Amino acid sequence: QITLKESGPTLVKPTQTLTLTCTFSGFSLSTSGVGVGWIRQPPGKALEWLALIYWNDDKRYSPSLKSRLTITKDTSKNQVVLTMTNMDPVDTATYYCAPSYCGGDCYYINWFDPWGQGTLVTVSS
Amino acid sequence: SYELTQPPSVSVSPGQTARITCSGDALPKQYAYWYQQKPGQAPVLVIYKDSERPSGIPERFSGSSSGTTVTLTISGVQAEDEADYYCQSADSSGTLFGGGTKLTVL
Question: Which of A1, A83, A115, B88 can pair with B33 through a Cys bridge, CB separation 3.0 to 4.6 Å?
Answer without folding.
Answer: B88
